[in-house]
Amino acid sequence: MREEPAVGDGDEDRLKLYRGKRHFDTTGEPRGAESPPGDEPSFVIQIHEASTTHFDFRLEVDGLLKSWSVPKGPSTDPNDKRLAVPTEDHPLEYQEYEGVIPGGQYGAGAVIVWDRGTYRPHHSDGPDAFARALERGHASFTLNGAKLHGGYALTRIRSGKDGEREAWLLVKEKERKEKGRPAAKTAASGTPDPRRARSALSGRTLRQVADEAAESESEETDEPNEADETGA
Predict the structure, then answer these.
(1) Who has the most CB within 10 Å: 19, 170, 173, 194?
(2) What is the pLDDT of residues 26-84, one digit of tens each?
(3) How far is CA 137 from the centre of its chain?
(4) Which of 232, 87, 73 shows the shortest CA–CA distance to 148?
(5) How many of the other CB atoms lie within 10 Å of CB of 35?
């Protein structure tokens, strides 16, 4: 049995589902360890080319990344309502994960970090207010990322009870008009094409990440071992 790394007392149980789905001797995904929070909570949006290509929207909450799978990705158009399906909590280290999850593993496929940055909760009644808002089923926040900026809201539309899968909506909030100034214009494009989108970390596309991983694996396979070189 593999030993888990030392983490905070509560993190072990909170990452149980995440760890239980992965074989860390095969996948390059982080196992998760205790990580100090930053000055502001972080967010990351990853594009994941799994069985179906989708966006993973993750918010740092209470030392972990609360995660939702967003099939069509976040939109910059307030008229778009994007389905967001909760997934297991991820460790904070996952916000820097970019690579290819090997075949046969949970979520096999290429992953890039499409956007990342910090966010500001729209809740001022204490540090736990945002987590409580999510528990109640509605939370709003302002993103300050490399690509996305401005107010967004997550709203639960299905509780997950009675055999239904829990579901949320991710919506861009309309920009507020300041007195004497017009409201800021919102980009009309809505959502990026995931196959053409580039990583905010490396500038690579999903295809480039997959091709580089395949090339690296091929080079490792072609390398002669020590026994071959010595004729042993």
Answers:
(1) 170
(2) 999 999 976 666 789 999 999 999 999 999 999 999 999 999 999 999 999 999 999 99
(3) 20
(4) 73
(5) 17
Token pair belonging to 121: 């909760």
Residue corresponding to tokens 């690296």: 216
Q: Rounded to whole angstroms, how far apart are CA atoms 119 and 38?
A: 11
pLDDT tens digits along 170-225: 999 998 754 554 444 444 457 789 999 999 999 999 999 999 999 988 777 665 65
> Residue 81 in contact with residue 169, Cβ under 8 Å?
yes
117 backbone φψ class: left, alpha, beta (φ>0; ψ -120 to 50): left
What is the CB neighbour count within 10 angstroms for residue 135? 10
Q: How far is CA 102 from the centre of its chain?
A: 18
At residue 214, the 3 state secondary structure works out as: helix
d(CA 121, CA 152): 10
**Are 113 and 201 contacting, i.e. CB atoms less than 8 angstroms apart?**
yes
